[in-house]
Predict the structure.
Amino acid sequence: MVNQHFLELQGSYLFSEIAKRRSKYMEQHPDANVISLGIGDVTRGLPQAVIEAMHQAVDDMVNPSSFRGYGPEQGYSFLVDAIITGDYHRRGIELSNDEVFVSDGSKCDVGNIQEIFSQDSIVAVQDPVYPVYVDTNVMAGRAGGFDTALGRYKNIVYLDCSADNDFKPALPTERVDLIYLCYPNNPTGMTLTKDELKVWVDYAIENDCLILFDSAYEAFITEEDVPHSIYEIEGARQVAIEFRSFSKTAGFTGMRCAYTVVPKELRGRASGDNLVSINELWNRRHTTKFNGVSYVTQKGAAAIYTPEGQAQTKELIEYYMANAAMIRDGLQEVGFTVYGGVNAPYIWLKTPNNMSSWDFFDFLLKEANIVGTPGVGFGTCGDGYFRLTSFGSRENTEQAIARIKKLSF
Protein backbone atom coordinates (compact mmCIF):
# COMPACT_ATOMS: atom_id res chain seq x y z
CA MET A 1 0.00 0.00 0.00
CA VAL A 2 1.18 3.52 -0.77
CA ASN A 3 1.10 6.42 1.66
CA GLN A 4 -2.35 7.83 0.89
CA HIS A 5 -1.32 11.29 2.02
CA PHE A 6 0.92 11.63 -1.04
CA LEU A 7 -2.26 11.45 -3.10
CA GLU A 8 -3.52 14.59 -1.34
CA LEU A 9 -0.74 16.66 -2.91
CA GLN A 10 -2.09 19.11 -5.46
CA GLY A 11 -0.58 18.99 -8.94
CA SER A 12 3.17 18.84 -9.45
CA TYR A 13 5.83 20.68 -7.49
CA LEU A 14 5.75 24.36 -8.51
CA PHE A 15 9.21 24.56 -10.04
CA SER A 16 8.75 21.28 -11.90
CA GLU A 17 5.65 22.77 -13.52
CA ILE A 18 7.58 25.89 -14.52
CA ALA A 19 10.33 23.77 -16.08
CA LYS A 20 7.73 21.72 -17.94
CA ARG A 21 6.06 24.81 -19.42
CA ARG A 22 9.38 26.31 -20.41
CA SER A 23 10.49 23.08 -22.10
CA LYS A 24 7.24 22.88 -24.05
CA TYR A 25 7.65 26.47 -25.23
CA MET A 26 11.26 25.83 -26.27
CA GLU A 27 10.22 22.77 -28.27
CA GLN A 28 7.73 24.93 -30.17
CA HIS A 29 10.13 27.89 -30.48
CA PRO A 30 13.66 26.41 -30.66
CA ASP A 31 15.23 29.73 -31.70
CA ALA A 32 13.81 31.71 -28.79
CA ASN A 33 16.35 33.24 -26.40
CA VAL A 34 14.53 32.53 -23.14
CA ILE A 35 15.86 34.26 -20.02
CA SER A 36 15.13 32.51 -16.74
CA LEU A 37 14.48 34.71 -13.71
CA GLY A 38 12.22 32.14 -12.12
CA ILE A 39 13.96 29.41 -10.14
CA GLY A 40 16.36 30.91 -7.61
CA ASP A 41 19.52 29.22 -8.89
CA VAL A 42 22.79 31.14 -8.87
CA THR A 43 24.84 31.84 -11.97
CA ARG A 44 28.21 33.08 -10.67
CA GLY A 45 31.10 30.76 -9.89
CA LEU A 46 32.14 29.69 -6.40
CA PRO A 47 34.43 32.05 -4.46
CA GLN A 48 38.11 31.43 -5.17
CA ALA A 49 38.81 30.75 -1.49
CA VAL A 50 36.24 27.96 -1.59
CA ILE A 51 37.74 26.44 -4.74
CA GLU A 52 41.24 26.45 -3.25
CA ALA A 53 40.05 24.87 -0.01
CA MET A 54 38.23 22.14 -1.90
CA HIS A 55 41.28 21.41 -4.07
CA GLN A 56 43.33 20.99 -0.89
CA ALA A 57 40.62 18.76 0.57
CA VAL A 58 40.71 16.53 -2.51
CA ASP A 59 44.48 16.23 -2.06
CA ASP A 60 43.86 15.26 1.57
CA MET A 61 41.79 12.31 0.34
CA VAL A 62 44.79 10.86 -1.51
CA ASN A 63 47.01 10.19 1.49
CA PRO A 64 46.13 7.56 4.11
CA SER A 65 47.23 9.95 6.87
CA SER A 66 44.73 12.64 5.86
CA PHE A 67 42.05 10.53 4.18
CA ARG A 68 38.50 10.95 5.56
CA GLY A 69 35.80 8.31 5.36
CA TYR A 70 32.58 8.67 7.31
CA GLY A 71 32.55 11.98 9.14
CA PRO A 72 30.43 13.14 12.06
CA GLU A 73 26.80 13.35 10.95
CA GLN A 74 26.44 16.73 12.66
CA GLY A 75 29.37 18.21 10.76
CA TYR A 76 33.14 18.50 11.22
CA SER A 77 34.21 20.72 14.11
CA PHE A 78 36.24 22.97 11.79
CA LEU A 79 33.03 24.01 10.01
CA VAL A 80 30.76 24.09 13.08
CA ASP A 81 33.27 26.29 14.93
CA ALA A 82 33.52 28.62 11.93
CA ILE A 83 29.72 28.88 11.73
CA ILE A 84 29.33 29.72 15.42
CA THR A 85 32.10 32.31 15.36
CA GLY A 86 31.31 33.84 11.98
CA ASP A 87 27.51 33.87 12.01
CA TYR A 88 26.59 34.09 15.71
CA HIS A 89 29.34 35.26 18.08
CA ARG A 90 29.85 38.43 16.07
CA ARG A 91 26.19 39.25 16.69
CA GLY A 92 26.44 38.56 20.41
CA ILE A 93 24.72 35.15 20.18
CA GLU A 94 26.13 32.23 22.15
CA LEU A 95 25.81 28.69 20.75
CA SER A 96 27.47 25.40 21.64
CA ASN A 97 28.81 22.96 19.08
CA ASP A 98 26.09 20.39 19.75
CA GLU A 99 23.38 22.90 18.80
CA VAL A 100 24.52 23.17 15.15
CA PHE A 101 23.74 20.43 12.62
CA VAL A 102 25.40 20.60 9.19
CA SER A 103 23.28 19.22 6.36
CA ASP A 104 22.99 19.06 2.57
CA GLY A 105 20.42 21.85 2.26
CA SER A 106 17.81 23.92 4.06
CA LYS A 107 15.12 22.54 1.79
CA CYS A 108 15.85 19.10 3.21
CA ASP A 109 15.93 20.32 6.80
CA VAL A 110 12.72 22.38 6.71
CA GLY A 111 11.05 19.37 5.13
CA ASN A 112 12.52 16.79 7.49
CA ILE A 113 12.10 18.68 10.76
CA GLN A 114 8.38 17.91 10.89
CA GLU A 115 9.17 14.20 11.35
CA ILE A 116 10.04 14.68 15.01
CA PHE A 117 6.64 16.20 15.82
CA SER A 118 3.31 14.50 16.41
CA GLN A 119 0.99 13.87 13.50
CA ASP A 120 -1.61 15.76 15.52
CA SER A 121 0.48 18.95 15.58
CA ILE A 122 -1.33 21.94 14.14
CA VAL A 123 0.83 23.74 11.59
CA ALA A 124 0.65 27.44 10.65
CA VAL A 125 2.23 28.82 7.49
CA GLN A 126 2.36 32.19 5.82
CA ASP A 127 0.50 32.55 2.54
CA PRO A 128 2.28 33.10 0.12
CA VAL A 129 4.51 30.28 1.36
CA TYR A 130 7.53 28.28 0.23
CA PRO A 131 5.78 25.08 -0.98
CA VAL A 132 8.03 22.65 0.91
CA TYR A 133 6.60 23.75 4.27
CA VAL A 134 3.11 22.74 3.22
CA ASP A 135 3.82 19.71 1.03
CA THR A 136 5.95 17.87 3.60
CA ASN A 137 3.22 18.24 6.21
CA VAL A 138 0.68 16.98 3.69
CA MET A 139 2.88 13.91 3.13
CA ALA A 140 2.99 13.38 6.89
CA GLY A 141 -0.79 13.40 7.19
CA ARG A 142 -1.35 16.74 8.96
CA ALA A 143 -3.30 18.47 6.18
CA GLY A 144 -6.70 16.83 6.56
CA GLY A 145 -7.41 16.77 2.83
CA PHE A 146 -7.69 19.56 0.28
CA ASP A 147 -10.62 21.98 0.20
CA THR A 148 -11.13 22.63 -3.51
CA ALA A 149 -13.47 25.56 -2.92
CA LEU A 150 -10.93 27.37 -0.74
CA GLY A 151 -7.86 26.12 -2.59
CA ARG A 152 -6.29 25.18 0.74
CA TYR A 153 -5.71 22.20 3.00
CA LYS A 154 -8.29 21.84 5.74
CA ASN A 155 -6.11 21.35 8.81
CA ILE A 156 -3.29 23.77 8.00
CA VAL A 157 -3.64 27.28 9.43
CA TYR A 158 -2.88 29.90 6.78
CA LEU A 159 -1.63 33.32 7.87
CA ASP A 160 -2.66 35.61 5.04
CA CYS A 161 -0.12 38.08 3.69
CA SER A 162 -1.28 40.77 1.28
CA ALA A 163 -0.63 44.33 0.24
CA ASP A 164 -3.04 45.36 3.01
CA ASN A 165 -0.66 44.12 5.72
CA ASP A 166 2.52 44.80 3.73
CA PHE A 167 2.89 41.03 3.26
CA LYS A 168 3.51 40.57 7.00
CA PRO A 169 1.10 38.12 8.66
CA ALA A 170 -0.94 38.68 11.79
CA LEU A 171 -0.57 36.32 14.75
CA PRO A 172 -2.70 33.15 14.63
CA THR A 173 -6.20 33.50 16.04
CA GLU A 174 -6.48 29.79 16.80
CA ARG A 175 -4.35 27.24 18.57
CA VAL A 176 -1.23 26.15 16.64
CA ASP A 177 1.82 24.07 17.58
CA LEU A 178 4.31 24.85 14.79
CA ILE A 179 4.75 28.15 12.95
CA TYR A 180 6.85 28.39 9.80
CA LEU A 181 8.35 31.85 9.30
CA CYS A 182 10.75 32.82 6.50
CA TYR A 183 12.65 36.12 6.67
CA PRO A 184 13.89 37.67 4.48
CA ASN A 185 10.86 36.15 2.88
CA ASN A 186 10.69 33.84 -0.07
CA PRO A 187 8.78 34.72 -2.27
CA THR A 188 7.90 38.33 -1.34
CA GLY A 189 11.34 39.59 -0.33
CA MET A 190 9.83 41.35 2.69
CA THR A 191 11.37 41.44 6.18
CA LEU A 192 10.47 41.93 9.84
CA THR A 193 12.13 44.44 12.14
CA LYS A 194 13.47 43.28 15.49
CA ASP A 195 10.39 44.66 17.25
CA GLU A 196 8.08 42.86 14.81
CA LEU A 197 9.93 39.56 15.22
CA LYS A 198 9.85 39.94 19.02
CA VAL A 199 6.04 39.88 18.83
CA TRP A 200 6.25 36.39 17.33
CA VAL A 201 8.78 35.16 19.88
CA ASP A 202 6.66 36.48 22.75
CA TYR A 203 3.58 34.84 21.23
CA ALA A 204 5.36 31.48 20.97
CA ILE A 205 6.50 31.68 24.59
CA GLU A 206 3.03 32.62 25.84
CA ASN A 207 1.22 30.00 23.74
CA ASP A 208 3.64 27.08 24.06
CA CYS A 209 4.36 26.72 20.35
CA LEU A 210 7.49 26.43 18.25
CA ILE A 211 8.79 28.72 15.49
CA LEU A 212 10.57 27.10 12.53
CA PHE A 213 12.57 30.08 11.27
CA ASP A 214 14.00 29.89 7.75
CA SER A 215 16.70 32.54 7.39
CA ALA A 216 18.34 31.19 4.24
CA TYR A 217 18.59 34.71 2.78
CA GLU A 218 19.93 36.61 5.80
CA ALA A 219 23.20 37.44 4.03
CA PHE A 220 21.27 39.71 1.64
CA ILE A 221 19.98 42.01 4.40
CA THR A 222 21.05 45.64 3.92
CA GLU A 223 18.92 47.54 6.46
CA GLU A 224 20.08 48.03 10.05
CA ASP A 225 16.94 47.12 12.01
CA VAL A 226 16.38 43.78 10.25
CA PRO A 227 17.57 40.83 12.37
CA HIS A 228 19.90 38.32 10.74
CA SER A 229 18.99 35.62 13.27
CA ILE A 230 15.91 34.99 15.36
CA TYR A 231 18.29 34.47 18.30
CA GLU A 232 18.93 38.21 18.32
CA ILE A 233 15.51 38.33 19.98
CA GLU A 234 15.34 37.71 23.74
CA GLY A 235 13.71 34.40 24.57
CA ALA A 236 14.04 32.91 21.07
CA ARG A 237 16.27 30.07 22.26
CA GLN A 238 13.26 28.72 24.16
CA VAL A 239 10.95 28.57 21.14
CA ALA A 240 12.81 28.64 17.81
CA ILE A 241 14.75 26.43 15.41
CA GLU A 242 16.74 28.30 12.75
CA PHE A 243 17.66 27.10 9.25
CA ARG A 244 20.58 28.56 7.27
CA SER A 245 22.05 27.75 3.87
CA PHE A 246 25.21 28.42 1.85
CA SER A 247 23.33 27.93 -1.42
CA LYS A 248 22.59 31.55 -2.26
CA THR A 249 25.15 33.13 0.08
CA ALA A 250 28.17 31.54 -1.58
CA GLY A 251 26.83 29.80 -4.68
CA PHE A 252 26.46 26.33 -3.14
CA THR A 253 23.26 25.35 -4.97
CA GLY A 254 25.20 22.61 -6.74
CA MET A 255 27.47 21.82 -3.78
CA ARG A 256 24.72 21.26 -1.17
CA CYS A 257 25.64 22.48 2.29
CA ALA A 258 23.56 24.15 4.99
CA TYR A 259 22.96 23.94 8.72
CA THR A 260 20.20 23.99 11.32
CA VAL A 261 20.42 25.40 14.84
CA VAL A 262 18.46 23.59 17.56
CA PRO A 263 19.03 25.16 21.01
CA LYS A 264 19.19 22.82 23.99
CA GLU A 265 16.58 24.87 25.85
CA LEU A 266 13.90 23.75 23.40
CA ARG A 267 11.39 21.33 24.88
CA GLY A 268 8.46 19.47 23.38
CA ARG A 269 5.54 17.75 25.08
CA ALA A 270 5.38 13.95 25.03
CA SER A 271 2.59 11.74 26.35
CA GLY A 272 1.63 12.46 29.92
CA ASP A 273 2.75 16.06 29.44
CA ASN A 274 6.38 15.06 29.92
CA LEU A 275 8.88 17.52 28.44
CA VAL A 276 11.57 16.15 26.11
CA SER A 277 14.60 17.72 24.42
CA ILE A 278 13.98 18.78 20.82
CA ASN A 279 17.75 18.96 20.32
CA GLU A 280 18.13 15.29 21.29
CA LEU A 281 15.24 14.22 19.07
CA TRP A 282 16.69 16.03 16.06
CA ASN A 283 20.13 14.60 16.75
CA ARG A 284 18.60 11.11 16.86
CA ARG A 285 16.76 11.64 13.60
CA HIS A 286 19.81 13.27 11.97
CA THR A 287 22.23 10.49 12.92
CA THR A 288 19.78 7.76 11.89
CA LYS A 289 18.84 9.10 8.45
CA PHE A 290 21.85 11.17 7.40
CA ASN A 291 25.49 10.22 6.84
CA GLY A 292 26.86 13.75 6.75
CA VAL A 293 28.04 16.24 4.15
CA SER A 294 31.27 15.32 2.36
CA TYR A 295 34.60 16.39 3.82
CA VAL A 296 35.49 18.22 0.59
CA THR A 297 32.27 20.22 0.63
CA GLN A 298 32.60 21.13 4.31
CA LYS A 299 36.18 22.31 3.75
CA GLY A 300 34.86 24.57 1.01
CA ALA A 301 32.10 25.88 3.28
CA ALA A 302 34.57 26.61 6.09
CA ALA A 303 36.63 28.73 3.66
CA ILE A 304 33.68 31.12 3.38
CA TYR A 305 34.55 32.33 6.88
CA THR A 306 38.18 33.21 6.09
CA PRO A 307 38.96 36.90 5.39
CA GLU A 308 39.35 36.08 1.69
CA GLY A 309 36.15 34.05 1.64
CA GLN A 310 34.20 36.81 3.38
CA ALA A 311 35.38 39.41 0.89
CA GLN A 312 34.62 37.20 -2.12
CA THR A 313 31.21 36.21 -0.77
CA LYS A 314 30.35 39.85 -0.14
CA GLU A 315 31.23 40.59 -3.76
CA LEU A 316 28.88 37.83 -4.94
CA ILE A 317 26.02 39.13 -2.81
CA GLU A 318 26.56 42.70 -3.99
CA TYR A 319 26.46 41.49 -7.60
CA TYR A 320 23.07 39.84 -7.13
CA MET A 321 21.68 42.74 -5.11
CA ALA A 322 22.72 45.14 -7.89
CA ASN A 323 20.66 42.95 -10.20
CA ALA A 324 17.78 43.16 -7.73
CA ALA A 325 17.94 46.96 -7.71
CA MET A 326 18.00 47.00 -11.51
CA ILE A 327 14.89 44.80 -11.70
CA ARG A 328 13.04 46.71 -8.98
CA ASP A 329 13.84 50.14 -10.43
CA GLY A 330 13.11 49.05 -14.00
CA LEU A 331 9.72 47.63 -13.08
CA GLN A 332 8.76 50.69 -11.05
CA GLU A 333 9.78 52.91 -13.96
CA VAL A 334 7.11 51.35 -16.17
CA GLY A 335 4.43 51.44 -13.49
CA PHE A 336 4.59 48.08 -11.69
CA THR A 337 3.84 47.86 -7.98
CA VAL A 338 6.88 46.13 -6.54
CA TYR A 339 7.93 44.63 -3.20
CA GLY A 340 11.24 43.14 -2.05
CA GLY A 341 14.63 43.49 -3.70
CA VAL A 342 16.10 45.53 -0.82
CA ASN A 343 16.96 42.89 1.78
CA ALA A 344 16.40 39.85 -0.41
CA PRO A 345 17.23 38.63 -3.93
CA TYR A 346 13.53 38.34 -4.81
CA ILE A 347 11.26 40.91 -6.43
CA TRP A 348 7.53 40.46 -5.90
CA LEU A 349 5.37 42.36 -8.38
CA LYS A 350 1.66 42.95 -8.86
CA THR A 351 0.58 41.63 -12.24
CA PRO A 352 -0.84 44.27 -14.62
CA ASN A 353 -4.52 44.59 -15.52
CA ASN A 354 -5.60 42.09 -12.86
CA MET A 355 -4.01 39.22 -14.78
CA SER A 356 -3.85 35.91 -12.95
CA SER A 357 -0.36 34.71 -12.04
CA TRP A 358 -0.29 31.91 -14.62
CA ASP A 359 -1.74 34.16 -17.34
CA PHE A 360 1.07 36.62 -16.69
CA PHE A 361 3.59 33.75 -16.77
CA ASP A 362 2.35 32.73 -20.22
CA PHE A 363 2.23 36.36 -21.40
CA LEU A 364 5.79 37.09 -20.25
CA LEU A 365 7.12 33.88 -21.78
CA LYS A 366 5.38 34.45 -25.10
CA GLU A 367 5.85 38.20 -25.51
CA ALA A 368 9.26 38.72 -23.86
CA ASN A 369 10.76 35.22 -23.63
CA ILE A 370 11.21 35.62 -19.86
CA VAL A 371 10.47 32.94 -17.27
CA GLY A 372 9.41 33.95 -13.77
CA THR A 373 7.45 32.30 -10.98
CA PRO A 374 3.66 32.66 -10.68
CA GLY A 375 2.73 33.95 -7.26
CA VAL A 376 -0.26 31.63 -6.95
CA GLY A 377 2.19 28.74 -6.86
CA PHE A 378 3.05 29.93 -3.35
CA GLY A 379 -0.58 30.00 -2.19
CA THR A 380 -3.96 31.60 -2.85
CA CYS A 381 -2.78 34.98 -1.54
CA GLY A 382 -0.12 34.96 -4.24
CA ASP A 383 -2.56 35.02 -7.14
CA GLY A 384 -2.22 38.24 -9.08
CA TYR A 385 1.46 38.45 -8.12
CA PHE A 386 4.68 37.25 -9.69
CA ARG A 387 8.23 36.58 -8.46
CA LEU A 388 11.44 37.43 -10.29
CA THR A 389 14.90 36.56 -8.98
CA SER A 390 18.13 38.51 -9.19
CA PHE A 391 20.31 35.42 -9.63
CA GLY A 392 20.67 35.77 -13.40
CA SER A 393 23.74 37.16 -15.08
CA ARG A 394 24.07 40.95 -15.34
CA GLU A 395 23.69 40.73 -19.13
CA ASN A 396 20.50 38.67 -18.92
CA THR A 397 19.07 40.88 -16.19
CA GLU A 398 19.65 44.02 -18.25
CA GLN A 399 18.18 42.37 -21.32
CA ALA A 400 15.12 41.11 -19.43
CA ILE A 401 14.29 44.56 -18.08
CA ALA A 402 14.79 46.10 -21.53
CA ARG A 403 12.33 43.57 -22.96
CA ILE A 404 9.74 44.25 -20.25
CA LYS A 405 9.98 47.99 -20.86
CA LYS A 406 8.97 47.40 -24.49
CA LEU A 407 5.82 45.46 -23.60
CA SER A 408 2.33 46.87 -23.91
CA PHE A 409 -0.09 45.99 -21.13
Notes: The radius of gyration is 21 Å. The chain has a mean pLDDT of 95.
